[in-house]
């Protein structure tokens, strides 16, 4: 299994809906949980809400027809600063401004365990961000997420921490930003 064994494909929100069961299965495998576990159920709820958001995009990675990884996200709407709500340290007003075409949220990037560490995540990352027209991308991770050093090695920079909402998986999230277009 190498990066040369995968094929990448871009999908819109409608196509993503038809792939939801496969996405949930790959998500569960990436985290080593049963598909019906609480973490997977929360992923399903988040995903279903995002498929119809403006600027939604999904890229899948397949090997021999099997979904081995995926990445998706959406564009922050004009005037929406909820994403940045409560971020500390507090950024400038200019940083917080959303125009509806400024910031793309990388919401999920998941790779099945057998494909982790083989370049699949980076290939998905570059494929989805390479097709974006926004000025920047953002993502949120748990404060101690093992992926943080990986994101930093890909050019992301931590801009602060926000409190989690009631019912969130974490009580706080670290926010990262990457200027687009992606250069490698």
From TrEMBL:
Matching Pfam families: Acetyltransf_1
Signal peptide: none
Domain N-acetyltransferase per the UniProt entry, residue ranges: 1-183
EC number per UniProt: 2.3.-.-
Keywords from the named record: Acyltransferase, Transferase
SUPFAM superfamilies the UniProt entry points to: Acyl-CoA N-acyltransferases (Nat)
UniProt xrefs under CDD domains: NAT_SF
InterPro entries linked: Acyl_CoA_acyltransferase, GNAT_dom
Sample GO molecular function, one term: acyltransferase activity
Protein name: GNAT family N-acetyltransferase
Source organism of this protein record: Streptomyces nogalater
Taxonomic lineage from the root: Bacteria, Bacillati, Actinomycetota, Actinomycetes, Kitasatosporales
